[in-house]
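Protocol step 4 of 5: obtain the predicted structure for the target chain.
Materials: sequence only (see below). No template structures provided, no constraints applied. The aim of this step is simply to have a reference model before the mutagenesis design in step 5. Sequence pasted as it appears in the construct record:
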Amino acid sequence: MNSSSHSQTKEVLQDAWDYKGRPAERSKTGRWTAAAMILGGEAVERLTTLGIAVNLVTYLTGTMHLGNATSANTVTNFLGTSFMLCLLGGFIADTFLGRYLTIAIFAAVQATGVTILTISTIIPSLRPPRCTADAHCAPATDFQLTILYLALYTTALGTGGLKSSVSGFGSDQFDESNKEERSQMTNFFNWFFFFISLGSLAAVTVLVYIQDNVGRQWGYGICASAIVAGLVVFVSGTKKYRFKKLVGSPLTQIATVFVAAWRKRRIELPSDSSFLFDIDEFGGEGHGKMKKQKLPRSKQFRFLDKAAIRESEKGADITLMNKWYISTLTDVEEVKMVIRMLPIWATSIMFWTIYAQMSTFSVSQASTMDRRIGKAFEIPAASLTAFFVGLVLSILAMVAAALAELKRLKVASSHDLINDKTAVVPLSVFWECPKGMKTMSTGLFLSTLSLGCFFSSFLVTIVHKITGGKPWLADNLNQGKLYNFYWLLAILSGLNFGVYLVCAKWYVYKDQRLAEVGIELEESDMPCHA
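Step 4 output (structure tokens):
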């Protein structure tokens, strides 16, 4: 009787394993016990990255004696590298190490970088002497700058590897096939973004205040200690985690489709889709390809369809097929969906270029202004960006909500659902991305942040070089014309918006394309979390 009862309660998962490689037991692994230990890792990552970046420009100009343009580029290059390395971290996690090892290793790398930065603020020989009474400021030596850049880019490497895997490893702790755990997964992402906001808020308020009023070494030291503490908590939960099989990077799917299409470039493309290989030819429900939703053949980028040309007889053993020579039509269509999104993706780069100014010249401006509230309290210059960003985003959020509601009402009216308050309006709440390439959405999002920061560095360099005689971006802002740089950004942003409108008109949404061939989106599709 006892053994029978024990066998019923010992439920194991088919697609997850414990730390010893055994099938994971539902009652002993995963869920909130494990996920809670992962949330702390994201909070300290945000605390550290923003705690360094948001106030770094004042350290570079005030302590390291760098010019405003050079300091701004250092900040944006640091942020750009951090976000771009997320792509590398995601590739390593999906293809080689797995998410657990990637988080543990790169958290240690990030801690090393912040520790070096902390030491550089403590040892006097690693920074220039203070400016003299006659305002003569000795520039930082090459050795001092080398240590600074070593610290920053080691931190960026750790940030990239850590950030790329935290959300994915957190979702791995929940079983999508279980109704209760699927609901818990949704709550996990709510808490995930809450912890991101919590870490960000602490960085731009408490940490910035400590850096400005107590000392940089204390502010950066807190960051280093937080990372180490988060790593200890994360590793302590090893026995509770669920581990998933390596699935490979979405970048590999894109590469295989292009390679297969190139190899068959001289083969004539059949007009009949039945001559193309697709997921319905896989013979087993357990095969990974069967988890994808079959997509219809589209008319754009037809040269990629050659990747799905089947040269062997239908029903041939799929295990003998080389993925670098043949892809399914659905794989091809998913790659096409990514390509279609690229123009719209590119127009978001300019937004992040504008956003990057909040951590560079806006901080420099604020540091020269009266920031006192009353007689005793003075807001740190870097903290003002938190208020600005919060106000702007609150406006944008309500604008987006209003537009979404207008669209929802339009759809409800077109389906005669206005008077039925319990009806489910046929408007998907999920994002526009291929179901089989959900992790790609995070990579695309982070890459726009990265390229936006790098484009900011590019613009600053070009503008500073062209206006060298009468610099817009002078080391002394009172002698420069920073307003002209902002006017330039406004003009570029306006042109970018025009390009976006053209791209948005050209784009055909996935649900519209599926509806044209009579295919409905699956209700079980999960949103693509960033």
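Step 4 remarks: Strands lie at 12-17, 23-25, 372-373, 377-378. The first strand starts at residue 12 and ends at 17.
Proceed to step 5.
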